[in-house]
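Example 9 (inverse folding). The structure is encoded as follows.
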């Protein structure tokens, strides 16, 4: 989570976004505590087994986690971007031997996607 950088339309990348949208796999207590400590809104649905355990504990289980469904819908944009990255077979099957070369491939694929998204000026 420390390496996440968010780029807006102008300015330098931010290291503390307003909110983080993730799937249920990131619903761990440590992830939520980390985001709370950095004052970042967590848009992560609660796992069914975590909710059942919380309810089973009664009052001691605590409050249900907040979840903004409208912000969570925007996560679809990220999923589509990941699918565009995985269209490149080398990244989808992880042919690279070192993490550095894999990261370089990610940067290259991101650059290609960005360049294709630019509309030519007349």
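The amino acid assigned to each position is listed next.
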């Amino acid at each position: 989570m420390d390496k996440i950088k968010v780029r807006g339309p102008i300015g330098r990348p931010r290291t503390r976004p307003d909110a983080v949208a993730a799937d249920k796999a990131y619903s761990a207590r440590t992830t939520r505590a980390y985001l709370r400590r950095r004052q970042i809104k967590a848009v992560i649905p609660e796992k069914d087994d975590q909710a059942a355990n919380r309810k089973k504990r009664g009052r001691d289980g605590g409050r249900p986690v907040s979840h903004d469904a409208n912000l969570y819908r925007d996560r679809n944009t990220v999923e589509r971007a990941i699918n565009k990255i995985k269209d490149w077979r080398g990244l989808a099957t992880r042919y690279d031997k070192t993490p550095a070369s894999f990261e370089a491939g990610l940067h290259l694929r991101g650059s290609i996607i960005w360049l294709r998204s630019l509309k030519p000026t007349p």
